[in-house]
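Internal tracking record. Fields below are filled automatically when a chain is submitted to the structure queue. Please do not edit lines marked as system-generated. If the sequence contains nonstandard residues, flag them in the REMARKS field before resubmitting.
Queue: standard
Priority: normal
Entity type: single polypeptide chain
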Amino acid sequence: MAVVVVGINPKRAVFHALSSLVQTTDGKKRVLANIVEDRAIQEATILYRPYRFELYCVTNEVTDTASTVARALADLSAISFSEVLASCYYAENTDALDHLVSLVADSCAELESKPFAIISDAGEFTSYNTYEDPGFFAALQKAAQGVQRKQAGESTLGYLFEAAGSFNQQLLQETQTPSASSINFVIQTLVQRMFDNIPRRATLFLGGSHHAQSAAMALMEIGASRFAVIGTSQESHNLSTLLQARLCAENVLNLELAKADMVIVAETALAPRLDKKIFKQIRKDRRDRLLLVLDLTPEGSVDNKITNLDGVYLYRAQDLLMMAASLPGAPNNAASVETQIAAKVVDLATELGISL
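SYSTEM-GENERATED OUTPUT FOLLOWS
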């Protein structure tokens, strides 16, 4: 068995004419019907998006799938077979799996890699990225539902698209959720650059979360030991227990802010309390001391206007991730994703019995 992908180069003049064949459901059925006439092709499905036209096939023997696809397209159009074939790119087995998994990852994780480069020597492919089309992943899922096969039983292509989709969700979660190691590295760097005598610096947590716990551990690694927690949630209670810190009610926020050098916001519901008004109220008590505010809520809930006040510095989770990309020694999330892609391709190849 072999897994094959055949695509039409979107930079060739014939691309739009050929892609017009599959812009409707009936058109896709006609193209697939011609392709599966080849006895060597067990399954076939079409992925069509603007500037992308690919056919994924499963074959049961060595066959020239590119020629089969090109001939099917030529038969349904006014374009010659040789011209269609010259516009095709091709990959099989692990290269085809790598192509599929990379496309899924790129469409949502926005990696720097350029998937066409792995299946073609033509330089014209290397400048074309997939993640510019936000509907690409949805098209992948829909293409999996349109698989046509000559033999009954479980669809190999359906399985591949489903596996790629599940993998995509994993990557999407990892890339959209702030990386704890990346954020902690930046937090430590910021604190060490802004403050001396870190063991004497006071840290106030507004709420608790796993990100807050992780940040607390990072601060303890560089000597921080004076902690207070404000909040009524179970997460806040757990954080205060973990840190052996005071658990305070919200009505003492002004008092705790006046003593704090760092504020870590972990719960969205508490974030609105941090506004310009409250900082003006405690300005005399703070005596112009620097204040570092870290907003670790997913949506970035703290009002950015507090940065207009002297000595108040606000960083959101996404700010910390962007800083991590440029700080020497920071964990490299993109490299981790690329490693996961390679591992996923090996797993799929092994499950399908494809030689590596």
